[in-house]
């Protein structure tokens, strides 16, 4: 397998600058499948419950399939942005945070229109039976989501941008049929992957640690 250059980032820099990339995804530049496989090879080192490793990964590069998946994503994005849950409508009573949320909403809309043009679409899946278990599902998704995030980190370290999205799951069955996902496997995310424009990324503004930290009890 070809080995690709890795950026000179400390662990803290990697963790704090792996951002959701939408408008800066380079839609014109092909991404080698071997580079995606290298990122996924890193992702497979993530933990999974009882070491089951029940994950499967779909990497979509075919232009027609990406376009069809992009159309589904466009429609689910439009419905999301029109809903009360839209990122653009959050924190409306806080002028400073509202500005940020409006930018997020604009960015979501931009990607919604162009998802099918992103050169690589990655969908992590996990085996869980025909129906998801009732009650607490933390163990199930905890056996996949760390690996999906490891993929994003590995991609960032190799000069790629990603975005973690789930809006397509409103029509998961339709996407499963499009991609030939067998019964019993469930999709966790849709991760568009591409080279990015510009030089680098910086940490995002976050709420102060003391506003979310509880020591010993709530």
TrEMBL record:
In Swiss-Prot or TrEMBL terms, this protein is called Nitroreductase family protein
Upper lineage is: Bacteria, Bacillati, Actinomycetota, Actinomycetes, Mycobacteriales
- Its domain of life reads Bacteria
Has keyword Oxidoreductase? yes
| InterPro entries according to UniProt | Nitroreductase, Nitroreductase-like
* Nitroreductase domain segment(s): 18-193
What family does the Swiss-Prot or TrEMBL record give for this protein?
Belongs to the nitroreductase family.
What are the UniProt keywords, alphabetically?
Answer: Oxidoreductase
């Amino acid at each position: 397998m070809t080995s690709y250059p890795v950026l000179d980032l400390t662990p803290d820099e990697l963790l704090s600058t792996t951002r959701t990339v939408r408008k800066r995804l380079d839609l014109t530049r092909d991404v080698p499948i071997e580079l995606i496989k290298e990122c996924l090879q890193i992702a497979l080192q993530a933990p999974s419950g009882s070491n089951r490793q029940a994950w499967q990964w779909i990497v979509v590069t075919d232009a027609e399939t990406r376009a069809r998946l992009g159309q589904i994503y466009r429609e689910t994005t439009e419905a999301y942005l029109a809903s009360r849950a839209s990122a653009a409508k959050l924190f409306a009573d806080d002028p400073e945070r509202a500005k940020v949320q409006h930018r997020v909403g604009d960015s979501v809309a931009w990607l919604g229109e162009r998802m099918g043009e992103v050169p690589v679409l990655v969908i992590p899946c996990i085996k869980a039976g025909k129906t998801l278990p009732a009650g607490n599902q933390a163990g199930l998704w905890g056996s996949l989501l760390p690996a999906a995030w490891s993929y994003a980190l590995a991609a960032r370290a190799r000069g790629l941008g990603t975005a973690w999205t789930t809006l397509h799951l409103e029509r998961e069955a339709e996407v499963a049929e499009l991609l030939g996902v067998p019964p019993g496997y469930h999709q966790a995310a849709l991760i568009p992957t591409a080279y990015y424009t510009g030089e680098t990324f910086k940490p995002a503004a976050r709420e102060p640690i003391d506003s979310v930290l509880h020591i010993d009890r709530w």
